[in-house]
Amino acid sequence: MAAEDGAQFNPGRHFMAAFFSLCILVVVNSLDATALGPAIPTMSYELGGSAVQAFWAGTSFLLAGTVAMLTFGGLSQSFGRKALLLISIGFFSVGSIVTATAKEFTRVLIGRSIQGTGGGAIMTMVEILITDLVPLRHRGTYFGYQSAAAAVGTAVGPLLGGGFTDTIGWEWIFWINVPLCVLGFVAVAVFLNLHKVNGEFTTKMARFDWPGVMLLTAPLTGFLVSISWGGILYAWSSWQSVVPMVLGLVGLLAFIVYEAYVPSEPLVRLQIFHNRTALVSYLGTTVHGIVTWCLMYYLPLYYQLVLDMSATISGVAVLPETLLVPAGSIVVGVLVSKWGTFRWAIWCAWCLTVLGFGLLYLLRPDTKTWQWILINVVPGVGIGMLYSSLAYGTLTSASEKDAAYAASMYIFSRALGQSIGVAAGGAILQAQLAKQLAAYPELADRASNLAKEASSLVEYIKSLEPGSEERIMIVQAYAQSLSIVWATMAGLAGAALLASLLTQPLSVDRAQETEQGFRHDKEDKTPGKDQVPQQEQEIGTKTAGGT
């Protein structure tokens, strides 16, 4: 029985060594993604970067990674997970070197784009490999371990980012990636022994959905570009914002139609969206990405600008979130593995996330230390619980033969949300800051210009005399503007909570089916042989008894 297959899962030492090598890569990727936040104001100041370029430092990384995810996931179906993972590490390493040696902000953006391609591909490969190697019932636990690895990078990232920025220079945020990538590359090469994918190289290249990649990349880029500069560089009503957004949405619709009718091996298998659980889970995953990255990107600015913390101390201040995210994810994974139900976790997680952002709305310049620490606990737990619980929603709604495609779409949906979160959060912050500053007669004539430099404004504030009237007004306006950002995120999380009520009570017990499973015995050369029997189960015919 499928349930027995999951119960009998017993990973050995070689499997755990391989899984640990994947966790190393997750740490590196998360380290880089979060270390940039505390350094952005200094980088913008030293390299002469504008607010638009500062926002793009984060957005370009996420955009490139988002575009790469489905492409690398599709290529791994034909050319193997291990090969694509090693290539991904190469991209990330090269991007790190390019960024570390940058003398102008344009080169930073180029390096971040290369890094993002590698980082997005790494996260996709890790997600798919967990799906390949671990039975469904136990995947939440391993997704929790993955989240713990991400949390290590997320927690250490701001500390290193702030520490390097305040001492030896922000360049070391990127130099430190190189030896870690080498370690991860060697570990993957040695320990990740998978069944090989048969077939000729030319045949695989010909079968791959290259037109689908192009049809996805162009409109997705246009859409994300429009929301990135909308309200910042150009007004939302301007043609520069409207045209790429409309063309992007139309192009994405064309991509969906193409995927449904043309390729024999599509980049995206649309059958993974065949029931309401899949739809609300992918929607929830996108919202999860939006609120998570908006929080991690803009909360450090509250500490640096409003509470006058250094970049290093602001990294310490976000520890309540970064330490509780893996805890929430692991607890959910363990409990779902034990109880066999997951809907309760999704609902509890969204409730905590809504409450958490509602509490963040209360942050002000005079908020006491113990108050902001306690406030930060709630969104950290909620966001952490969503990592594992939403993974169950997407994977139980797909057949086992489509599990890798579902895993790719899951990580893509979250990355899409992350790209939107950084851009949308910046747009909301700038618009509100201009409005708040204009309310002060002394600043009204400079409100628009000050708001355009919302991210690099930290350095300007620190140059003002402590206690000066101008400094007090700007700090107050900034705190109120961030409150609107948190209120908007609370509203989005609330909408996702309502949508999640449509989640069906699908079973987490079924047999595993994969052609690229872990090769426990080096003498076992049978292609496609895995550690559990291959058996496909119709989704929805067997449901769990609870929620």
Q: What count of helical segments does DSSP give?
A: 20
> What structural class results from the helix and strand content?
mainly alpha
**CATH level-four homologous superfamily name of the largest domain:** MFS general substrate transporter like domains
Query: What's the overall geometry?
Result: globular
Please report which band the strand proportion falls in: under 5%, 5-15%, 15-25%, 25-35%, 35-45% or over 45%.
Answer: under 5%
End-to-end Cα distance, whole Å, is: 22 Å
Helical residue percent? over 70%
> How many β-strand stretches?
0
For the residues shown, what is the average pLDDT? 83
CATH architecture label of the largest domain: Up-down Bundle
Highest CATH level, the class of the largest domain: Mainly Alpha
The CATH topology of the largest domain comes to: Growth Hormone, Chain: A
Largest sheet: none
List the uncertain runs: 522-545
Whole-number count of domains: 2
Element-by-element helix/strand order: HHHHHHHHHHHHHHHHHHHH
Give the assembly state of these chains. Answer: single chain
Radius of gyration: 23 Å
GO cellular component, one term: plasma membrane
Membrane topology: Multi-pass membrane protein
Keywords: Membrane, Transmembrane, Transmembrane helix
Pfam family, one: MFS_1
